[in-house]
Amino acid sequence: MSYSLDELKRLFPPGRFLVKPGELAPYESDALTAFRARPLAVVLPESHEEVAAAVRWCAKHQIPYVARGSGTSLSGGSLPIDGGLLIGLNRMNKLLRLDAKERLAVVQPGFINLQVSNAAAPYGLYYAPDPSSQPVSTIGGNLAFNSGGAHCLKYGMTSNHVLAARVVLPDGETVELGSESLENTGPDWLGLFVGSEGLLGIATEVTLRLLPRPETYHTVLAAYDSLAKAGEAVAAVVASGLLPGAMEIMDSLAIEAAEAAVKAGYPLAARALLIVELEGETSQVEAEARHLEEVIRQSGAYEVRVAQNADERMKIWKGRKAAFSAVGRLSPDYIVQDGVVPRSRLGQALAEIERLSARYGLRVANVFHAGDGNLHPLILYNGRVEGELQRAEELAGEILRLCVALGGSITGEHGVGMEKKAYMTEMFSEDDLNAMQRIRQALDPGELANRGKMFPGEAPALRFHGAHPLEKAGVISRE
Amino acid sequence: MTLMPSSLAEVQEAVRTYQHVRPRGGGSKPALSAPLEGQTVLEMTGLTGVLEYDPGEYVLVARAGTRLAEVEALLAEHGQYLPFDPPFVEQGATLGGTVAAGLSGPMRQRYGGVRDFILGVQFVDGQGRLVRGGGKVVKNAAGFDLPKLMVGSLGRLGILTEVAFKVFPFPKATATLLVDFSGLEEALEALYRLTGSPIELYALDLLPPATLALRLGGLPEALPARLERLQSFLGQTGQLLQEAAEARYWRHLNRLPLGEGSLVKVALTARHIPDLEKALGSTPRRYLSAGNLLYLTWNDEPDRLDALLKAQGLSGLVLKGTVARSQLGINLEHVLGHKVSRALDPQGKFSLHAPLP
Q1: What sequence ranges are listed for the domain FAD-binding PCMH-type (chain B) (predicted)?
Q2: Interchain CB distance below 8 Å, A343 and B57
């Protein structure tokens, strides 16, 4: 062991300083399993001071590092750096304070997303951002990647629900960003930090805003004989002035998979299913529901179901949430993208994806957040067939370019990470990227923090490794 | 010296040419746009116009010098609005000035403030380069969130030239209840009970000493029942404002009519209100968005307000009135801020402090 590594070892007790190959293996990749790298060592800090000490060690010896929570990043955002340090934050998993009166929770970065809502539930409160990784993904990772979920049109993303953060900068210094107020009187430094994909520092304490749980939900499932009709229905809902909490569409391939997996009772012959959910004060929701019924009736749905109780609602959502892992039944492997298009271009985007799918000879299932134009094409392939992964990646790239060409974005919620950095130039000019780089280099001249992510540059070769162990176990899914 | 650029190239040229520049929009917040000695003013109202707006997308893109009044009129034609409810619409405020000052109004209570609705920006950095961040769709996670960074940046990081916002449908019907309480403690107790309840309010203002202004919005057929529920929740009927009178009430407030003096914005939480109320005396003031935002008019020495805010651990921003420094209260400066500012403006062209002689 080198002198410098010895110095790091002295900062952490045995068991929280890992260097043996067997100990490092679980940290070699995240949910984007096509990439893999072997870190120099893994440290598992339990306090802000330990995180700062590890970062200072990296700065002193110019060792690049990656901070990681549960490793559910779909963009390879928490992929380690070959020969770099991996700072695992799962042990910093405490709820430090829950103030029901002020409606906020202060947590450590390794605290799990869903547990925030669980802790807030006795007070009638919840934490709004709901990425489908929420049973396992951590707040620190959600913060770094500005995670989304099914309710972003109305409630925004993670960034809209973070009030403050204590941050270790890449030089080891500590800053406090934000405050408990929703307002601010200077530049929104916290706004810059959230979603910076670990390049600007590591959050060690995060203040989250909690919302009162909606009083009533009204969940509608509508079946269509074409994807285009479902897309038009979304446009009609929006045009009617309603603002649903969620609007989701699944295509026939996704329906088939979900049905096989969880028997949600979906109409099997449907070419497309639309889920619309209203939420809020009971009398308002009841009135909105009457308007929605009329809009859906006119949209050409051939079958409409309204959840009559919480169980029926859960059943509708269960199929939707299971759709991703269920696709695994249709194909040995798949990759998922999360490009965004303007809502009015959804139909065009889906038709184009269908055309690309035929051209590449790879099936594509579509499950998406229709309310905010956030696509989730699942490209099905067989990793054991020579060249199929590369072909799937090419198809994915074409879909990203298509999203940008239609006026959208390469990522709605998964982040750029390792996976999409080559496509940043599709969306941003050289001057745009330079400005972001200058910000990054001002804080991290050695580019140590999450080196190799977000900005265009070399990426390690893709290799086929199959699904993430947690995914195989059905714990996480890729949306 | 004052310049009025009419193109992006002219803004870039001005930044490259002059040593110290200060952008000005509609001038509705003079404490933030009055030039210091040696600063060249860039009048941004020559760069106006809505560039993209499709009501079905809930997205509006406009040049930064576009006046709020123009934007709001266009949105209203389609039953939509800027949900963060920016002030000074009739006073000529622009989109760029609103973002740079980071200002929201009473209706931020329902869906959020200007930071929650900005989707994209284009700005000229301190070296005259044109930079874009964010996008034009309602959901986007690509690259650093430069749009949010620009909120409240006061022109110190760049000169905004274009902004994109998420917009929402305006409620089909609204009604406002003004409810008096026997004292501040009772009013705050009601405020906390409301914010923890599923009752959804478009505005929740506290008017000292002990009145709450509560605005409901939604479908007209549901509104009477919701009003009744709100009244029974509070245990009193209050004064009901509806239709034109209600619209007038809020339109009037959009000017932040708090009398003559220095108009100051303070960021806070409801927890700070009891101590502030003891300290502020007869200062005209109004707390917005369940105590997250305070606007007040100060007529004493700025140093006294500075000290008062510091003592409470709060920060303030002077919008109108002559002060040496627009930022009051606790020091929000930190190393991250300094480094990012230098990265975007290495020569200090946008410095908020008087240039050295």
Answers
A1: 1-170
A2: yes
Residue A86 makes CB contacts below 8 A (sequence gap 6+) with: A27, A39, A41, A42, A43, A65, A66, A68, A80
Q: Which residue of A has its CA nearest to B133?
A: A432
Q: Are A288 and A242 in contact (CB under 8 A)?
A: yes
Considering CB atoms only, which of B113, B198, B267 is closest to A281? B198
Distance, in Å, from the CA atom of A380 to the CA atom of A220, rounded to the nearest integer, reads 29
Q: Is the pLDDT of residue A466 over 70?
A: no
Residues A36-73: tens digit of each pLDDT: 889 999 999 999 999 999 999 999 999 999 999 998 88
Which residues from B are below 8 Å from A231, CB to CB?
Answer: none
> What pLDDT was estimated at residue A426?
92
Q: Supply the pLDDT for residue B357.
A: 43
Whether residue A316 is predicted with pLDDT greater than 70 in this model: the reply is yes
Tens digit of each residue's pLDDT (9 = 90 or more) over B133-174: 999 988 898 999 999 999 999 999 999 999 999 999 999 999
Nearest CA distance, A345 vs chain B (angstrom) = 10
How does residue A322 score in pLDDT terms, banded at 50, 70 and 90?
A: confident
For domain A1-213+415-479, give the CATH number.
3.30.465.10
Q: Is the pLDDT of residue A473 over 90?
A: no
ipTM: 0.97
Consecutive H or E run containing B60: strand B59-63
Q: How many CA atoms lie within 13 A of B106 on its CB side?
A: 24
Listed in order, strand segments (DSSP E) in B188-280 are: 203-207, 211-218, 239-242, 262-267
Token code pair at residue A474: 């059905």
Four-point Cα dihedral A39, A45, A51, A57, nearest 10: -50
Q: Looking at the predicted structure, is the pLDDT value of residue B108 above 90?
A: yes
**More confident site: B31 or B322:** B31
Is any Cβ of chain B less than 8 angstroms from the Cβ of A118? no
Per-domain residue ranges of chain A: 1-213+415-479, 216-405
Residues of A with CB below 8 A from B108's CB?
182
Q: Which of residues 97-136 of B touch A (CB under 8 A)?
A: 102, 104, 108, 111-113, 115-116, 125, 129-133, 135-136
8 A C-beta contact, residue B31 and residue B318: yes
Domains of chain B: 2-169 (3.30.465.10), 173-253 (3.30.70.260), 262-324 (3.30.70)
